[in-house]
Amino acid sequence: MRRKMVVGNWKMNGSIKQNEILLQGLIAGLRDLHDADFVVCTPYPYIGQAQAMLQGSNIAWGAQNLCSAKDGALTGAVAPSMLVDYGCTHVIIGHSERRALFNETDDTAAARFNAALEVGLIPIFCMGESREERDSDWTDYIVGRQLDSIIRRFGPEVLKNAVLAYEPLWAVGADEPATPEQAQEVHDFIRKRVARCDTGIAANVRILYGGSVRPHNAASLFGMPDVDGGLVGRASLVAEKFVPICEVANG
Ligand code: PEP
Q: Which of 1, 5, 135, 148 is the 20 to 30 Å CA partner of 207?
């Protein structure tokens, strides 16, 4: 039985004051929810604030990216071990905004994925197709290629310590999510593709759905058999929205 999970992706939002209000709301709102896992992925400068406020709570914290190198002359980059120093347990890898706006490729995402694992961070590995790719019936090809970029390099075993996220680009930051049936279809495809390599790992790996998850649509999405929770952008910035989504996941 897979435990559900909700991850908040704050993207480039927040301020010390706003974060304080949000995190206080999350601590209070999630305090009694013990049947699912909750994570917030903050901008780098606020990871220390998340650590200070969340340690001892049932909310984990993480980052939205990392550098695949350990250290060195890489101005502006953040090493995996630095995230560990600040108590991070998770890191988002290969988000569609990184792929589209920051030249992330299957190769660089795979290198980051591996760098996260090497320091004991749990990578949340994002996959998803664009509207044009879906309309051309390329969804399986694109998502399969992105998943294979990890499995071919590192083997299916790495998925024991990772979380997968299906985020159709056309639903991220949009008005409407994928329908529960559309999400289920791709999640089923992902799980079956992992099962071609290892059925036990496929049965256990968590596959989150991301793209316009809201309190009113979380139950129908998370109710699908292969949807193990959500990766949530905008609705993770407001406790009054994020908490009800977490309540759905908690059951
Ligand atoms: C995201 O960027 O990971 C995301 C799912 O965003 P939103 O929930 O705002 O669509």
A: 135
